[in-house]
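Run: sequence + pyridoxal-5'-phosphate -> complex structure.
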Amino acid sequence: MVEINKNPGAIAGVLDTARIKGDFPILQRTVHGKPLVYLDNAATSQTPTAVIRALVDYYERYNANVHRGIHTLAEEATAAYEAARAKVAALIGASPDELVFTRGTTEALNLVAYGWARQHLRPGDEVLVTPMEHHSNLVPWQRLARERGLRLRAIPLTEDGRLDLAAMDGLLTERTRVIAVTHMSNVLGTVTPLAEIARRAREVGAVVVADGAQSVPHLPVNVRALGVDFLAFSAHKMLGPTGVGALYARREWLEEMEPLLAGGGMIRRVTLEDATWADPPARFEAGTPDIAGAIAFGVAADYLRGIGLEAVAAHERELVRYAWERLREVPGLTIYGPGPEHRGGVISFTLEGVHAHDVAQVADGEGVAIRAGHHCAQPLHAHLGVPATARASFYLYNDAGDVDRLVQALYAARKLFVRP
Ligand code: PLP
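>> structure
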């Protein structure tokens, strides 16, 4: 029998998780009769009451379109929408006019590929990617490469799943125009040295397109300090609602970028024959945006800033160290990726003799939500030589007791599937 930690906060974590859990109504529910332990935060995070209230408040009090009406409701909605842009931008050290609201990371990365790179890249130009990219920072580049005759090259990984920077240097040439790289792998948890990558990219005149879907929610991120050209992230992974996210882009790039969608809200002047574009960021937000979602995204940014991203990162570091030790006790368990000192709050693993889906199913039966599969990173799983992994991913409301419940579920899976 696995011993359950009686005082989780004292063993791991720097945050008051008991208080924080109280802010998240969903964490009070049970699953299959057991208190929910939510460890699928890399897929989507849970939503605090303040964010849910912001959504309801918009529809109850000032539901109106933005940037169009002059009545009170429209003005209030516009003011709240633009205030949310300022809050989200401030969280990453950007100014509001450098931040475009999108549907999420995927749309933001496609906007870079099709709005910026399609104009700027020529046949034979090279795009560096990494084997640990989520499909959303890989497939748009593959498509563009086919269309524009570009060459995709992959920066190799070290044995323990970090980027091999020495090998990257060997790939950097005057043909390198883009380095498309994740800031934190959603499978290995690897945190990449973005500032260093951006410094080396600048030396050859390449731009860095960073996937911040896993880093912005969990680490202090400052686009100026990192020196990246583009950064994409999603609200639903950082306590906000689904269907909204953001693209940060350096102002000079935004000015030159072409919109993906054309229509209302993104124009300066339209005649029957022609149209000119509005200034960024409006140029990239054609049609009625997810107004309530964006406003709630701003509230999620406030909530995170209230707790402090340094504290969130420190909490997850402690939790990952604890989970690392506990998981390694489980017979037949293999963890993929670097040690706790080089990763964020994500641990992917396999359990010998038990398929990852069975691991997740048994865990669900124990009330523990984890993910299983390729996590939209098929090339990485091919590299690891496994078709699927199980993944536990942590956030600010998780504590050592949650890790213990996971470990207990893994023993339950072993008992069911592995013959003694
Ligand atoms: N990039 C990474 C690293 C992710 O983990 C995810 C989501 O799982 C995405 C991109 C795609 O995000 P979204 O589905 O919100 O567009």
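>> summary
The longest strand covers residues 176-182. The chain has two domains: 8-44+308-417, 62-306.
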